Amino acid sequence: MSGASHEGTSPSTVKERAEIALNNEFLRKAVKFTTERLRTGKKSASEEHGNWDLWRERGRQIRLHTIAHLDYYLSQFIENARANGVHVHFAATSEEAVELTMAIAKEAGARSVVKSKSMVSEELHINAALEKAGIESVETDLGEYIIQLAGEAPSHIIIPAIHKNRYQIAELLSKEAGKELPPDTSILAGFVRRKLREKFLEADIGMTGCNFAIAETGSIVLFENEGNARMVSTVPKTQITLMGMERIIPTWDDLEVMSTLLPRSATGQKLTVYMSGITGPRRPLDGDGPEEMHIIIVDNGRSLQLGDPEFQELLNCIRCGACLNACPVYRQIGGHAYGGTYSGPIGAVLTPSLNKNIMEWDDIANASSLCGACYEACPVKIPLHDMLVYLRNRKVKNGKRMMLESAGMKGFKLVMGNHKLYESAVKIGRAGQVLVKREGKIKAKIGPLKGWNSYRHLSALPKQSFREAWQELEKDLKQEMREMTAETKQRMEQALKTRKGGGNSHEQH
Amino acid sequence: MSSTEHEAFLRDLREKSLRQQEQFIGNIKQRLGRSGQGGEPPAHPFKGAPDFWQEFELKQDERVNLFMDNWKKAGGHAVQLRTMEEAKRFIVQLSKDLSAKQLLIQNQEELHAMELDRSLNGAEVSVWHQQQGLSVAAGADIGVVVVDYAAAYTGSIIVTSSPDKGRSVSLLPTVMIAIIPAERLYTRVGQVLAHFNGSIREQMPAGIHFISGPSRSADIENDLTIGVHGPGIVYALVVTNE
Ligand code: SF4
């Protein structure tokens, strides 16, 4: 029942996973429906708030500034957290983080751990390690709990069980309840409330993630809607917080900006139902809260992005998921097709970056459309589409030259290198499924399914169903086409110019 | 595991942590192309919300209306009352309507003054206490708190922890009633955060909780369900003290 258990059997390439995703009618519909709703919610929440671009710019500046001085702010955070009575630890790798967690859990004589949603813990596959040691590990976020019961991995940062319908959920929970539960949302949620309430009260350790860490007071901040993160940080005696090393913001004032951007971008809420600032373990006379608090600061590939002019801004990400909802490709194929912990446009760039290995993730960057919707949606203005271009170029530069790859790259370069063609590509649509004409023949498709239609892959795919899926996908994508905003267009054109200029190291292949 | 053994365990971890810190921060420095010791705090010109926002300020009646509107939109119940006496009557009536058996109140002056136990027969009224607080909270039907602050623009109440104010009281019971003295209601979240900004670390409460409605989830088919873990029924009583 661990988040990692799907690993062994899961298909290994994006293509294979996308094949499964595309053939799963329900998943496609559910993802589309949900992301559409989130996207609309975000749009109205940001429009209603007003001056959205000013806020985005401010958010970007705060993140840029913090990351540029990460050594200072992280040190300040550590010092203050220690002074609050927190035990601060460092993990350069996911293995080290797991080791630390296990040592603390064993020392506490823990039999059970309750967890609130944390993307970092997904990176670590901590559930598998805990269970191996005979320690029960319970995901307490409703969606995470459901997929934990199913033995799967989350498919969306914000709505992890987006791919399950309520009949499937009723089946899973009925097994847990030992009796048949009707597929009624409120009854199912009610069962989970009772079941998990017991788990909270029994647990020895509560594990949380960390949305933001405030340097000036050594506090951590958690955003959530269900109240499970509050439970996890209120009831058990020991709390372990896993924190990505880049989660820092300098002050509580800066939290106003982040709390304006994050919920609106993630779910369209003005603020999540709960936003909790936790500053150390309970005070000596307090009646609840953890007696012992550990914060494990995790690198796990993050520092590789520091000092890298093309990818450093990845560290600005506040994990809101807006780029997923904006991405036409993600909306079609869903998160499982991406395979890594992080999906969608951010996952496409972050996964290879965290893995230190761009070659390993050859196909992920190709499964994006370079349409710029992710950049427009991003509350801290991370130029994800530029990064996808860098990534593709680096891979080619590193000498990987599969048939598929170079055919695709040629097509891609052809478009990028020809201003007219590029402009019309922009016009045809941000979805980017541009047909590239070469010698009067269509040789490559640029965009979401680039390469997937090449002969090399075609043989592996059931012809009929793939073509059908593709036709439908294409139709859906076309509906979503709209003009790029002037800003994005300008960015893309700028990228083009740089690329054209001589001596550009990305140019060679 | 004896406490001295446990202390030794923590001490070992601490030593290891201090050793690793140097490497960890050193690596960051190096990647950022910086050398030497920490140095001066960097100038932070973009601190906090944009300027135009800092000037945004509503009048009290506007704040009350906006707060109540937002709270209701989030799925909560909100009423405006003139006095604490009215608030008391409201709580008593609600407890009766819901046939509550167990009420848990924070150890706060304003709540003691209500003498709820004298008006509620058939229900037990407990006061948050350092010992046993958690188990009482787990069995309580209604938790009653007087908030520290509130913010109208997001429809949030803010409660902080202390020996007299348990985190569980606003979390574990099925129903939460929050009393908001109108003078603690601000326009923006930033005005509340300003209380913690630059505050003396030693005086920080361990828990600062912004609450903006009932516990909710849309994880099952996007169908909104309330009360998944936290209270699903939440009342905001804004007391204007006119
Ligand atoms: S890249 Fe931007 S939009 Fe995507 S998750 Fe991160 S902050 Fe959100």
Secondary structure blueprint with pairings:
The complex is a heterodimer of chains A (509) and B (242).
Chain A: H1 14-23, H2 25-49, H3 52-68, H4 70-83, E1 87-91, H5 94-107, E2 112-115, H6 119-124, H7 126-132, E3 136-139, H8 142-150, H9 166-177, H10 185-202, E4 205-208, E5 212-214, E6 219-224, H11 228-232, E7 238-244, E8 248-249, H12 252-266, E9 274-278, E10 292-298, H13 322-326, H14 328-333, H15 344-354, H16 373-377, H17 384-397, H18 403-417, H19 419-428, E11 434-438, E12 441-446, H20 455-458, H21 463-480, H22 486-500
Parallel strand pairs in A: 1-10, 2-3, 2-4, 4-7, 5-8, 7-10
Antiparallel strand pairs in A: 5-6, 6-9, 11-12
Helix pairs in contact in A: 2-12, 3-12, 9-10, 15-17, 18-19
Chain B: H1 3-32, H2 51-54, H3 60-73, E1 77-81, H4 84-97, E2 102-105, H5 109-114, H6 116-119, E3 124-127, H7 133-139, E4 142-146, E5 149-151, E6 156-160, E7 175-181, E8 185-186, H8 189-193, E9 207-211, E10 216-217, E11 225-226, E12 233-239
Region (Disordered) (chain B): 30-49
InterPro entries (chain B): FTHF_cligase-like_sf, LUD_dom, NagB/RpiA_transferase-like
Organism (chain B): Paenibacillus nanensis
What report would you give on this structure?
Chain B: This is Lactate utilization protein C. Chain B: Residues 30-49 are annotated as: Disordered. Chain B: InterPro entries: FTHF_cligase-like_sf (IPR024185), LUD_dom (IPR003741), NagB/RpiA_transferase-like (IPR037171). The complex is a heterodimer of chains A (509) and B (242). In chain A, helix 2 (25-49) packs across helix 12 (252-266), helix 3 crosses helix 12 and helix 15 (344-354) crosses helix 17. Chain A folds into 2 domains: 14-304, NagB/RpiA/CoA transferase-like (Rossmann fold); 403-498, no CATH class. Chain A has helices spanning 14-23, 25-49, 52-68, 70-83, 94-107, 119-124, 126-132, 142-150, 166-177, 185-202, 228-232, 252-266, 322-326, 328-333, 344-354, 373-377, 384-397, 403-417, 419-428, 455-458, 463-480, 486-500, and strands at 87-91, 112-115, 136-139, 205-208, 212-214, 219-224, 238-244, 248-249, 274-278, 292-298, 434-438, 441-446. Chain A contains 22 helices and 12 strands. The longest helix of chain A is centred in the N-terminal third of the chain and has 25 residues, at 25-49. Mean pLDDT of chain A is 74; it is low at 1-10, 400-485 and 495-509. By secondary structure, chain A is an alpha/beta fold. Chain B is α/β, with parallel strands linked by helices and 242 residues long. Chain B folds into 2 domains: 1-42, no CATH class; 58-239, Rossmann fold. In chain B, 35% of the residues lie in helices and 21% in strands. In chain B, the strands form 3 sheets. A 6-stranded parallel beta sheet of chain B has the order 1-12-7-4-2-3, with helices on both faces. A 4-stranded mixed beta sheet of chain B has the order 8-5-6-9. Chain B has a two-stranded antiparallel ribbon with strand order 10-11. At the A-B interface, helix 2, helix 3, helix 4, strand 1 and helix 5 of A face helix 1, helix 7, helix 8, strand 9 and strand 10 of B. The complex binds iron/sulfur cluster (SF4). The site of iron/sulfur cluster (SF4) has 15 residues of chain A, from helix 13.
